[in-house]
What we know:
Blueprint: H1 18-24, H2 27-32, E1 45-48, H3 53-64, E2 70-71, H4 83-93, E3 97-100, H5 108-113, H6 115-135, E4 140-143, H7 173-193, E5 197-202, E6 204-206, H8 219-233, E7 237-241, E8 247-252, H9 253-265, E9 272-275, E10 280-282, H10 283-294, E11 299-303, E12 312-313, H11 318-322, H12 331-349
Parallel strand pairs: 1-2, 1-3, 3-4, 4-5, 5-9, 6-8, 7-11, 8-12
Antiparallel strand pairs: 8-10
Amino acid sequence: MFRNQRVKGNSRFPRYGLLYRRARRPETARAARGKDRLLEKTGKIFVAGHRGMVGSAILRGLLAEGYRNVVTRGKKELDLRDTRAVSGFFSEEKPEYVFLAAARVGGIMANMESPGEFLYDNLMIQSNVIHQSHLAGVKKVCFLGSSCIYPRECPQPMREEYLMTGKLEPTNEGYAVAKLAGVKMMECYRRQYGLKGVSPIPCNLYGTNDSFDPRSAHVLSSLVRKFVDAVDTGEGEVTVWGTGVARREFLHVDDLADAVVFLMTHPDPPEIINVGSGFDVTIRELAAMVARAAGFGGKLHWDASKPDGMPRKCLDVARMTGLGFRPRIGLEEGIGRTVAEYRERKKGTGKP
Ligand code: GFB
């Protein structure tokens, strides 16, 4: 619906009110929105991947902040892996700011089953969008990394300077190599061509518009589906993958979107910056929280034949906290919302 047009208003996204925004904006963020701001309200913004979980949250965030000149393209209209098509799009639309949220993403099993696709699709998408942004003279680019780009045996919590200091976790190596290449491409393009930008590195994300496909989803949404479905069908046991000892840090995608828009409005953000809650839980603790939120009182069966993945992934969020940003949605609340959204989705379509 946003193709080639200025977005007229945000009535489709009523829960993002001014009050909500004001309440959570720290002083430094307000200062950043002063005269030095780099993301102008009337500037043309391209949100790549606007239908995905992250892209759609960024789009909602931008609309709530009063940005109206947003351009988007669906996958069918513009294949971001196609260099010629992406070049044509940039010549035609001439965006001034780019949020690169388009990516092939998935949980641990999807990553293990299709490492080639995760590597190829992401390399192509990000190379095309970052390179064309440079050629088109884009003022600022936001490229989203992922906490899986840190080494498998990384000291915890993981600081930005630990990148490239060790071997990657094998279960998501294809995806991580691509994302790492994207972060490096941003650095190299800044150094050689002066391309301005920021690469936020989010922890594990969940929230509105996430996939609930049990084979390919990330752990939180996958567990939401399993426990809600078990309650609905009266199933007494739910199977959870792995041993449950792996630790993960979670952030609701609305908080990520706020952080990303905040960073793009900041006059001089760090080139690479972790974005997370700063605390982690074991998968066992997560499963218990989701079971409780879904109202599941049965048994949990741990399928240790499935991989645990990286033992621990917890970001050091000191840089982001230093800029005055803190997430707003706690894990308990976020899980509750996700359970409600999954129930709504089931009710609306009759199936998930
Ligand atoms: O979100 P997730 O799939 O991926 O979480 P990663 C995997 C952890 O949750 C493992 C356990 O320890 C799994 O054993 N788990 C338990 C489950 N039950 C389930 C389930 O039903 N579904 C899933 N998916 N996991 C991903 C990377 O790693 O993290 C991506 O593969 C990306 O590349 C993403 O970086 C942020 O956290 O291990």
